[in-house]
Amino acid sequence: MGNDYYNYSEQRYVDLLTNGGFKAFFGDENNKSEVMMLINTLLPPHRQIEHIDYRPTGLQGPLIGHSKEFQFDFVCRDASGAVFIVEMQRYREQSWFKRCVSYASRIYDRQNRTGFDYDVPPVYLIGLMGVDIPHPDTEYWRERYISEYTFREKNCHDLLDETIFIIFAELKRFHKREEECETLQDKLLYLLKNSGRMTQPPAWADEEHCKGILNAMEISDFSDIKRKQYDKDMYDERRRNGELAAAREDGMEQGLAAGELAGRKATARKLLEMGMPLEQVVEATGLD
Questions:
Q1: Would you call 106 helix, strand, or coil by DSSP?
Q2: Coil, strand or helix at 13
């Protein structure tokens, strides 16, 4: 992914593992049908959605006496009331799974009605992962790339009710070539992982389900307003990544002289001085 990201201006299709590409696809309500199709390939058969309403991505709520904002990448709700969150994760981050649980549980809890009625719709969080998840059983996950987590009985796996589901699509673990993609899920995962580097559509791109998604990702088809916003988002992301890389390099140099921990602390100070959010500083430095 490395060098391709910096050559985004030469791309034919957006890279969905960049902030700009993600927003251009998921954030455009003209792409509702394509977004639903992609989400549905990762959902269980009984939870297929036919209509979605876009929800605000930033939610404000009380937390231990003070205010804390949760900024989601994408949130929608279907006709049954179920909430679907899609998060894109391109870089490694400490406590990533715990953050997903926190996000999903916050949304789930907000649906509780006044009184004792806890019959609320389920919440599904889908993570599009550009990095590996450190599964304890590495052998079992060698050829698997979709994982699901929820509340089940430990021994017999009974599911008493739908509450919170967290589903990860580990794109880095998905290694199928174009000609090896047979199922719709395989083809859409291939597009998710490779769209930013494709110069030509795959051989199966004319199939009904894939054609719409590719059209929605083709940069030349953007309106003038959407193209300007996309270019701005990509420029901002490239600048942030450049600042992050420079700060890491400075921290490594200082770390060699003053010890690793001191170097990481120095990196954190530089990033905070540049105005980078605390969460991203933690991700960049590995500090708590």
A1: helix
A2: strand
Q: What CA–CA distance (Å, rounded) separates 275 from 131?
A: 25
- Name residues whose C-beta falls within 8 Å of residue 167's C-beta, 6 or more positions apart in sequence: 42, 43, 124, 125, 126, 127, 146, 147, 148, 149
The one-digit pLDDT tens for each residue of the chain (288 residues) are 444 444 555 789 999 888 899 999 999 999 999 999 999 999 998 899 988 888 877 654 444 333 445 567 898 988 888 999 999 888 777 788 998 999 899 889 888 765 567 888 999 999 999 888 888 898 898 888 999 999 999 999 999 999 999 999 999 889 999 999 999 999 999 999 999 999 999 999 988 889 999 999 999 999 999 999 999 998 888 887 777 777 666 665 665 555 677 777 888 887 877 767 777 777 777 787
φ, ψ for residue 190, nearest 5 deg: -60, -45
Sign (positive or negative) of CA dihedral 274, 277, 281, 283: negative
Rounded CA-CA distance 239/245 in Å is 10
CB atoms within 10 A of CB 57: 15
Per-residue CA distances from 255 to 22, 250, 278 (Å):
35, 8, 21
